[in-house]
C-alpha cells in the first residue's frame, strides 16, 4: 500500500496541517533559515503533519530549500547547507513574516488529501491512481510513510545527533502546476526524514 498525497485545491497561506506552499507554521522563536552557500533566505516548500504519517504522532515536518541561485547552492544535498528541514512540536502555531530579500515562498498554497493505493511501490502508484480516479497524474503531490522510492541510490541520511539512519516521512513531487511548483531539477523528487529520538529532520532531492 502507498499513501498518496493528492491535490485538494488551493489552501489559505497559513492553513494548519499538511500542505505545500503558503507560509510555514513555526514556534515563536523561529529564525527563517538562510542558505549556507549564498546566505539568501530559503524558500518554504511544504509542511507535513506527522499525525498524517503515523497515527499517534504529533508535530510538523517543515521543509525549506534555497532557490536564489537554482542549481548553484547544492540544495539537493542533505548536508551541504542549501536546504533545511525542521521537526516542530505542538508549539508550531506562529506564522513568521518571510525575509524581504530572496525567494522565500511558492506562488500557490495547495491543500492535500490522502488516498491509499494498492501499489507495491510509489513509482507505480500515480499511474494506478490515475486509472482509478480519472484525474491527471500531475495532481499526485507525493506520498507519506512507507518506503522512499529512490530515483538514484538510497541516500537515507544519518541523524546529526545519534548517527542512526533517519525515518522516512515524505516524498514530494514538484507540484501540480509547473508555474507554482518546487524545483527538484525538473521532474525530480524531494525526500523528508526525521529522527524521533533526537528531534532532528533532513531533506534532499534527486532526479
Ligand atoms: Zn543559496
Ligand atoms: Zn538521532
Automatic annotation (TrEMBL):
<dbReference type="InterPro" id="IPR035948">
    <property type="entry name" value="YwqG-like_sf"/>
</dbReference>
<dbReference type="Pfam" id="PF09234">
    <property type="entry name" value="DUF1963"/>
</dbReference>
<dbReference type="InterPro" id="IPR015315">
    <property type="entry name" value="DUF1963"/>
</dbReference>
<protein>
    <recommendedName>
        <fullName>DUF1963 domain-containing protein</fullName>
    </recommendedName>
</protein>
